[in-house]
Here is the input.
Amino acid sequence: MTANLDPIQEAKQKAALEAVKHVKDGFIVGLGSGSTAAFAIEALGERIKRENLRIMGIPTSYQAFLLAVKCGIPITTLDEHPEINVTIDGADQVTPELNLIKGMGAAMAREKIVAAASKLNIIIADEQKKVKLLGENNQVVPIEVLPFAISLVERKIAAVGGKPTVREGKGKLGPVITDNGNAILDTYFGEIQNPAELEVKVKMIPGVVETGFFVGLTDIVYVGTSGAVEKIEKLRK
Ligand code: 5RP
Here is the structure.
């Protein structure tokens, strides 16, 4: 455990430590992106050293790749291991139905591919990420777009009720360019009653590579709090 964390960082780390308990020897593990997922990558690195675990990681971003290498996690690819045992990732918003908005780190395209290849998807978060409806609190939905298509996608998104803004870089002039060479349209839809339906409408737009909607993909969410870690599981139908 890292000492002297502020309460939010501590909550993220607690959730990460719970999630990492699901990893067993021989597992292929999807490595999520963002500050919460980073705690899970560090904890996995520590388990590898302490327990001599033989696991391999599939990073969802360049950030996750660099951290995994630093933590001593052997890296593999989806081509070598098409089936992932468990993926541990963060989220920007989580509903009681375990639907998510992801992508404030611009990594949602690879995150969704890794999640779709994973037998078990675990999301880790602090309490601030819990909402009733996606889009609450003015949360935008990140949409990854081919640069060639930005103006077309902006118009089509407006036609389905969204207000898109091209995400600008920090520390570099101009738009954010994702690990896949694309742009991000942070899109305000207001509170979203039916994310599955809206996701389909947005993904139908030519030039849209991926959206930050993660609907029906998550199995378990661990929410770190100032006290215990809350576990929310998908209700089986
Ligand atoms: C990146 C993501 C992240 O998982 C999400 O933005 C949460 O990040 P953090 O844990 O730093 O709040 O989806 O694309």
